[in-house]
UniProtKB/TrEMBL annotation, chain B:
The keyword Membrane does not apply. Transmembrane segments: none annotated. It comes from Geothermobacter ehrlichii. This is Tungsten-dependent benzoyl-CoA reductase subunit bamB. The keyword Metal-binding applies.
Length: 177, 671
């Protein structure tokens, strides 16, 4: 049996007051040495902020994508059009967000490893950000084995067709039985 | 390496279009801290008293507080300093929001503007790149509208924009600078910005701000956040709701306006409406506010939610905080719906929400009393609310009588004559104040109003309760965890303060105690104004998270300046005295240091004289309110002493100015 921890920051945009304390503490935590400097442009969370249209969306950085995505849909919120990009969690070649401002290297949220909870959550006194952690127990062999067989079988089916595989399995079962 | 600050000021000569980045002296920071402190030093050094508000030689300084841009919670204020067109004295208005930290991240502590641009321009500051850009297409645009247009044309939604509206462009003496949810309103600094031909300053920064001792600094920030949470759960019992918690008065959140509407005066500080707040009104106003308010919002790095987004049907969205919610309503004897509608327009015009409504009510009072006639208001609508919208436009466009009213009640009354001056009865040092007319003289407030260099009777108060608590038990309970006191004696002063009897106002707190209380409250405000800390988490509310005992630690760990309570107190006293020195050099004297004549009904001339005499002495000022040579030298302000002697403001052999000198000074000031 193996335990796996799922970490998540739940975002409630209705509660966000737009103060950007999350950006402040994130950039301070990740400074070297720790807390030695502050610069929200280096933060791994940012608040998309358009007060006159009541848009307050904290977004934290996800995986880096090496290529631009195909989807660039438009979203209309309260009459204003937003590019899908604006709310994306990934750093990618086509956008500046979640990259170190000077080196251009991508940034990713690490849930403030070593802390009890991500510090953006701790500093969000209005509770727009809450930390969720759940532990999942996984039985390594039982769960992983079928996956492997499944993948293997699927490859075989793709190659020889389902009927042929079923016939073969039947044949083998008879032989062994 | 400089900590907390960048060590660079941006100097812009608008007449020549010259931009310079100037390294500042760290020694100055140690002496004057930053923000208001170093702004004041620049004004003293470079704006002599002969320079008036609308001279190209007047400076307009946008200073970020010393700790802005660090993680210090609620530290986000821009301190804008200049010479006020209305008072002729130094103005230092402040705004919260997001602008000051952004300036720090761009790499600058201050923007110092001098000269005048021949054409309307805006400034675009993006890290090292600084541009003066044409703003002719923004002429006449609203302040919020301008910010939106600029962000769009720069394609920089994250730029922070401080802008003026038409009031600033047309040099209305009480024009503000607006920045998102906040504004620097008092003293007419928006008029100076307009006079300099600057429509807006947009800034975007992506650089680091460092602190000297990181772990220690963060621990202090976490303590403040913990305390904010604690106070949220433990509001102060027995005081009105707006004083029970933290933050700037939570006007956007609370619906119970009984206290404001019944204790403050309506019109131009004219009538108190006891019994106004009925269930019906409460229901109606609550509905108006609930419908208008989209969200409660905060300034940079602050959880307090003092502001709100307001959307009135059919009008563009704007943001508001604090008492402007009621100023237009009460000036016009109208309702909240009207107040929120006209405030939308006034915010776009960029007007001080305290002065503007009073000036409009003043004009209508003059009309009602035959001092102005119908001919002075051509085309004015008949209905009450229509008249206010009409006046707003006349003032901002400076049309007809609006041109006179644009100077505020003091100057307008002088120009109008014919007895108008009797109606301009709510100014201190020529500047309109909150409409309060009270009964019994309050010695603490008497001194704060008289001697406050901010020339604004709100947010100069703070850490000492505004009134005695009714029972000894309640007072004992209050002092139990009163950690903010600089000295234990203040607890005793408060414990012995009774609502009635021997130990009640006006003779208690005693004159000496009053001086000490005022000095403490003032000290905290001046520290905030140098650090860029919002008063809402410090000098303004009772039992705040920032106080004299943890501030030195913040400065030491943040800015790397060795600091203790004594040194901090002295620094605050130094630049506080320098603000006064600027005003003294511009002719301010004891005769100017008084609250509105009818502010209190019951007055005590002898006590008032004693209060002023004792406070002047306590502060080391002579009987004219001029800091003495000894005081100045003890604070390292020898250069001020020298100039005072040269100008005959002080004389060589004595500390008090003679009558002869005083006359000479008055003459100089009048020239």
């Amino acid at each position: 049996m193996k335990k796996r921890t799922i970490k998540n920051i739940k975002i409630d945009v209705d509660k966000c007051n737009g103060c950007r304390a999350c950006e402040v503490i994130c950039s301070a935590f990740h400074a070297v040495p720790k807390y030695s400097s502050n610069n929200p442009a280096r933060s791994r969370i940012r608040v998309i902020h358009d007060p006159l249209r009541d848009i307050y969306v904290p977004v934290y950085a996800g995986e880096y994508t090496v290529a631009e995505c195909a989807g660039r849909d438009k979203y209309v919120i309260d009459g204003k059009e937003y590019d899908e990009c604006a709310f994306c969690r990934a750093a990618c070649p086509s956008r500046e967000e979640f990259k170190e401002p000077d080196s251009g290297l991508p940034l990713k949220c690490d849930m403030c490893e070593g802390e009890e909870e991500p510090l953006c959550v701790k500093w969000c006194l209005v509770d727009a950000l809450t930390y969720e952690e759940r532990e999942e127990e996984v039985e390594v062999e039982e769960e992983e084995a079928p996956d492997e067989i499944e993948i293997g079988l699927e490859t075989l089916i793709n190659k020889h067709g389902l009927d042929k595989i079923l016939d073969t399995v039947e044949q083998l079962a008879k032989d062994k039985g | 390496m400089r900590y907390a600050e960048t060590g660079i000021n941006l100097e812009i000569d608008l007449s020549r279009g010259n931009i310079e980045k100037v390294a500042t002296d760290p020694k100055e920071t140690e002496l004057y801290l930053g923000g208001l402190g170093t702004n004041t030093k620049l004004l003293w050094d470079r704006v002599p008293p002969e320079v008036d508000a609308f001279s190209p030689d007047n400076l307009l300084i946008f200073g970020a507080g010393l700790l802005c841009g660090t993680p210090a919670t609620g530290c986000n204020r821009t301190i804008v300093s200049t010479i006020s067109p209305q008072t002729g004295l130094m103005a230092f208005s402040m705004m919260g929001g997001f602008w000051a930290p952004e300036l720090k991240y761009a790499g600058y502590d201050k923007i110092v503007l001098r000269g005048k641009s021949p054409d309307l321009v805006y400034l675009w500051i993006h890290n090292d790149k600084v541009e003066i850009r044409d703003a002719s297409h923004l002429r006449g645009k609203g302040a919020i509208e301008t910010a939106e247009i600029i962000k769009r044309e720069l394609n920089e939604p994250r730029a922070q924009v401080a802008a003026i509206g038409l009031a600033g462009e047309n040099r209305v003496y009480y024009a503000s600078i607006e920045q998102g949810r906040s504004s620097a309103s008092r003293g007419g600094i928006g008029a100076v910005m307009g006079d300099k031909g600057v429509k807006a300053i947009a800034v975007r920064g992506t650089k680091d701000i460092s602190v000297a001792r990181p772990e220690e600094f963060l621990a202090l920030c976490n303590e403040v956040l913990e305390y904010i949470k604690y106070r949220e759960e433990h509001p102060i019992p027995g005081v009105m709701p707006i004083l029970a918690g933290l933050g700037s008065p939570q006007e956007m959140k609370i619906h119970d306006e009984k206290w404001h509407t019944e204790n403050f005066m309506w019109g131009n500080s004219r009538t108190r409406r006891k019994g106004f707040w009925t269930e019906e009104i409460e229901k109606e106003w609550t509905e108006t506010m609930e419908k208008a308010r989209t969200r409660l919002i905060s300034c940079f790095n602050c959880p307090m939610k003092c502001g709100a987004t307001i959307s009135m049907p059919g009008l563009p969205t704007y943001m508001m905080k604090c008492f402007t919610k009621l100023t237009y309503t009460m000036a016009a004897y109208s309702d909240l719906d009207f107040g929120l509608r006209i405030a939308q327009k006034a915010t776009e015009y960029g007007l001080d929400g305290f002065s503007a409504p009073q000036v409009m009510a003043f004009a209508l009072e003059l009309l009602e009393n035959g001092i102005l006639s119908k001919d002075d208001f051509p085309g004015m609508p008949e209905d009450n609310e229509g008249r206010f919208f009409y006046l707003l436009d006349m003032i901002v466009h400076r049309k007809g009588i609006g041109d006179t009213l644009a100077k505020g009640t003091y100057w307008a009354a002088k120009e109008i004559g014919n007895g108008a001056e009797d109606y301009a009865h709510n100014t201190i040092k020529k500047h309109e104040q909150l409409p309060l007319k009270l009964s019994m003289l309050n010695p603490i407030y008497f001194l704060m109003y008289s001697t406050g260099e901010k020339i604004n009777i709100t947010q100069i108060e703070g850490q000492f309760p505004q009134a005695p608590f009714p029972s000894r038990e309640a007072r004992e309970e209050f002092v139990k965890d009163w950690i903010q006191v600089p000295d234990e004696k203040f607890k005793q002063y408060f414990l012995d303060w009774e609502p009635r009897g021997e130990n009640s106002i006006p003779y208690y707190p005693t004159v000496q105690m009053t001086c000490e209380i005022v000095d403490w409250q003032e000290r905290m405000h001046y520290i905030d104004d140098a650090l860029g800390q919002c008063a809402g988490l410090s000098s303004f509310p009772l039992k705040p998270p920032y106080h004299i005992h943890n501030y030195p630690k913040f400065i030491s760990a943040g800015a790397g300046i060795a600091m203790d309570e004594e040194k901090l107190t002295e620094a605050a006293k130094r630049y506080r005295t320098l603000v006064r020195a600027i005003n003294i050099r511009r002719g301010m004297r004891r005769k100017d240091e008084k609250p509105p004549e009818n502010h209190w009904k019951h007055r005590f001339p002898e006590l008032e004289k004693e209060l002023l005499d004792t406070y002047y002495k306590f502060k080391g000022w002579n009987e004219e309110g001029i800091p003495t040579k000894e005081t100045l030298e003890s604070l390292g302000l020898d250069y001020v002493a020298r100039e005072f002697l040269e100008r005959g403001i002080l004389s060589d052999d004595e500390t008090a100015a003679t009558d002869e000198n005083r006359e000479a000074v008055t003459e100089t000031a009048n020239q």
